[in-house]
């Protein structure tokens, strides 16, 4: 008989959430993790540490730019980088220990080490082989580089290295104006680095609503980030304490060189499946190197499932978590399901950027009749009081039925505000449903209501 009902490989947000839910639903569960601490990329070298640095550097920005106007006088704080790192490490520790506590509380066994699947039903970790009815691969992703660029985590770093640089660089070159490039680029710009972001496409944050992306770029520029779009990086020459980035501008093929103390490569991530033994098992992969699954996360091999960054879909911690919960429910005989039409995306810069559902570009492309309700934070009293009036809320609704199709927010607490719209979308709400819901005053949320009002008879404060 198998030792376990379920063994999950990987303890990132997909794996640990799945493990806890499996255990809560009565399945005997173990989770294999080879890192020293639980939580995967997100907790150890991703979402959580980057938010600590974003928070700390934002406080510095507030002190430097807004305190005096509020009557808070005095010298701005200076940066003690070692202390900021130790604050960040402490935040990581609290979170990873938290997962360890939750595993104990829910009776999930942590099998320490790196897993290999020698055959369906068996998981080998070091010298030991454990057996399970169901094996779930939640092994996540790793940074992907580009030709001509070798990450050494010294002068040429991935997001992992960028979170723990020995000092704040004078000049930081960032390759890729996606989520990582702009979040970490913002951190170092606020801490005093000269930051240049090189982006291959003509727009930053590809896939984002164009309207928002344009506004976002303007605001980042105001914060001192130099952004070069249409820049094809040809290679990086890493010297001992410096690097030279060679790139061509796609519009005229002109050649350029950028000198930097550190180069951050933020050109995407790729599924991490190394060492699992998938080839030998005959697990089918997609053309993009992801594990192919059916709608119930089953791979081509019976008894083996996969969730999170290692399968198709956006590489987002919360998408992985939802898949983890859904799969646990499926394995426990319930009807687990993820609604991929309502998965929010957030960039934790200042202002934050958040989106859910369709972009205006995609609706145009699909030829769907829609209406736009837009409201600027300039008309929001709370935002003005808090020096946070940059940005807007934009709601897209079906032209006939008024059903909400998507929403895009750039502004204060956008990553929180978006969830009101997610809930509305899950309930199939019309913009009018939001517009007729009383919103407390004064809150940023009123801007969401005003955007919903703008889909109908019009907002009040613009
Ligand atoms: P990304 O896909 O968000 O952005 C990569 C960027 O690099 C794109 O804009 C792309 O056009 C550009 N690029 C690619 N090749 C290039 C080249 N040769 N020269 C210049 N630019 C080039 O990837 P990322 O920022 O590395 O993030 C990786 C993954 O992690 C993403 O899936 C992201 O969603 C996820 N992530 C999410 C969050 C969040 O939700 N806040 C934070 C960090 C990471």
From TrEMBL:
Its EC number is 1.8.1.4. InterPro entries: Class-I_Pyr_Nuc-Dis_Oxidored (IPR050151), FAD/NAD-bd_sf (IPR036188), FAD/NAD-binding_dom (IPR023753), FAD/NAD-linked_Rdtase_dimer_sf (IPR016156), Lipoamide_DH (IPR006258), Pyr_nuc-diS_OxRdtase (IPR001100), Pyr_nucl-diS_OxRdtase_dimer (IPR004099), Pyr_OxRdtase_I_AS (IPR012999). Its cofactor is FAD. The keyword Membrane does not apply. Binds 1 FAD per subunit. FAD binds at residues 51, 309, 315-318. GO terms for biological process: 2-oxoglutarate metabolic process. Signal peptide: none annotated. The active site is at 441 (proton acceptor). Residues 343-452 form the Pyridine nucleotide-disulphide oxidoreductase dimerisation domain. It comes from the Bacteria. Gene3D superfamilies: 3.30.390.30, FAD/NAD(P)-binding domain. One of its GO terms (molecular function) is dihydrolipoyl dehydrogenase (NADH) activity. Keywords: Disulfide bond, FAD, Flavoprotein, NAD, Nucleotide-binding, Oxidoreductase, Redox-active center. NAD(+) binds at residues 176-183, 199, 268. Residues 4-324 form the FAD/NAD(P)-binding domain. GO terms for cellular component: cytoplasm. Disulfide bonds join 42-47. Pfam families: Pyr_redox_2, Pyr_redox_dim. It catalyses: N(6)-[(R)-dihydrolipoyl]-L-lysyl-[protein] + NAD(+) = N(6)-[(R)-lipoyl]-L-lysyl-[protein] + NADH + H(+). Belongs to the class-I pyridine nucleotide-disulfide oxidoreductase family. The active site is a redox-active disulfide bond. This is Dihydrolipoyl dehydrogenase. The lineage of its organism: Bacteria, Pseudomonadati, Pseudomonadota, Alphaproteobacteria, Rhodobacterales.
């Amino acid at each position: 008989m198998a030792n376990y009902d379920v063994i999950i490989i990987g303890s990132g947000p997909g794996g640990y959430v799945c493990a806890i839910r499996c255990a809560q639903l009565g399945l005997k569960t173990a989770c294999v993790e080879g890192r020293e601490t639980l939580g995967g990329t997100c907790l150890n070298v991703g979402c959580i540490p980057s938010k600590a640095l974003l928070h700390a550097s934002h406080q510095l920005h507030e002190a430097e730019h807004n305190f005096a106007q509020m009557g808070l006088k005095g010298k701005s704080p200076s940066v003690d980088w070692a202390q900021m790192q130790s604050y960040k490490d402490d935040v990581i520790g609290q979170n990873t220990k938290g997962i360890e506590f939750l595993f104990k509380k829910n009776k999930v066994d942590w099998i320490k080490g790196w897993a290999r699947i020698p055959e369906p039903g068996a998981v080998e970790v070091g010298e030991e082989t454990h057996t399970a009815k169901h094996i779930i691969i939640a092994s996540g992703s790793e940074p992907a580089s580009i030709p001509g660029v070798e990450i050494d985590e010294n002068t040429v770093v991935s997001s992992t290295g960028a979170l723990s640089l020995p000092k704040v660089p004078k000049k930081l070159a960032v390759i890729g104006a996606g989520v990582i490039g702009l979040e970490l680029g913002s951190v170092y710009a606020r801490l005093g680095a000269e930051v240049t972001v090189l982006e291959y496409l003509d727009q930053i944050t590809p896939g984002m609503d164009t309207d928002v992306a344009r506004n976002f770029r303007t605001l980042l520029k105001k914060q001192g980030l130099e952004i070069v779009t249409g820049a094809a990086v040809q290679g990086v020459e890493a010297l001992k304490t410096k690097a030279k980035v060679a790139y061509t501008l796609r519009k005229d093929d002109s050649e350029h060189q950028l000198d930097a103390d550190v180069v951050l490569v933020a050109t995407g991530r790729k599924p991490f499946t190394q060492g699992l033994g998938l080839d030998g098992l005959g697990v089918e992969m997609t053309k993009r190197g992801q594990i192919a699954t059916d709608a119930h996360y089953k791979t081509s091999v019976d008894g083996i499932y996969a969730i999170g960054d290692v399968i198709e879909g956006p590489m987002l911690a919360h998408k992985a978590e939802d898949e983890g919960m859904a799969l646990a429910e499926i394995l426990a005989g319930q009807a687990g399901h993820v609604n991929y039409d309502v998965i929010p995306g957030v960039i934790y810069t200042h202002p934050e950027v958040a989106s859910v559902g369709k972009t205006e570009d995609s609706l145009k492309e699909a030829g769907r009749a829609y209406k736009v309700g837009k409201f600027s934070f300039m008309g929001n009293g709370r935002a003005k009081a808090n020096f946070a009036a940059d940005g807007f809320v934009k709601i897209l609704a079906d032209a006939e039925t008024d059903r909400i199709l998507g929403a895009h927010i750039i502004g204060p607490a956008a990553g929180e505000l978006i969830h009101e719209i997610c809930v509305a979308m899950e309930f199939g709400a019309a913009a009018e449903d939001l517009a007729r819901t009383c919103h407390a005053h004064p809150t940023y949320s009123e801007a969401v209501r005003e955007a919903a009002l703008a889909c109908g008879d019009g907002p009040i404060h613009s």
